[in-house]
Write a structure and sequence with these properties.
Strand 2 and strand 3 (about 55-60) form a beta hairpin. The chain is of the alpha+beta class. The protein is built from 1 helix and 6 strands, in the order E-E-E-E-E-E-H. About 20% of the residues lie in helices and about 35% in strands. A 6-stranded antiparallel β-barrel has the order 1-2-3-6-5-4.
């Protein structure tokens, strides 16, 4: 067509590296701990995470606590027993209830004012999981 621009071989949208999400390994679960107004802790399984945010499985009995856009100070991301990363989180996306998980919802949360050291720890955790996932895939292919 006249005046039409040719399609570029370069993708129009490239995901930022720090936004690359990984799923925790089943052998090394990751959890997110949030505190409510009366200092009770809610331990949430992490579905995936990146250096900019985390997706958790929020139980149906605690849905009343969830307010989009309202930050949760004094949270932490726990990588097994070795690392507990303090952070502040703000819910950005909330899914419809998931029947497969008994009505729990998937909540995408962004980190707020994350310290540069904490951001670096998250980037290292993402790269570490990527490396382990790659090794597992290569081992599975070698067995075939």
């Amino acid at each position: 067509m006249p005046g039409a621009k040719p399609k570029s071989a370069i993708p129009s949208r490239i995901q930022r590296r720090e936004g690359f999400r990984v799923e925790p390994l089943s052998s090394e679960p990751v959890s997110c701990v949030v505190r409510n107004a009366v200092n009770e802790e809610l331990h949430l399984p992490v579905l995936d995470f990146s250096a900019v945010g985390v997706a958790v499985l929020w139980p149906p009995q605690a849905l009343g606590l969830l307010k989009p856009g309202i930050s949760w100070p004094h949270c932490r991301i726990e990588f097994g027993l070795r690392i507990a990363l303090p952070c502040e989180l703000v819910p950005k996306q909330i899914s419809e209830p998931l029947k497969a998980f008994g009505g729990a919802v998937r909540v995408g949360m962004a980190y707020v004012h994350l310290a540069s050291e904490a951001e670096r720890m998250l980037q290292i955790a993402v790269m570490d999981i990527e490396r382990k996932q790659r090794a597992l895939r290569q081992a599975a292919q070698a067995e075939v």
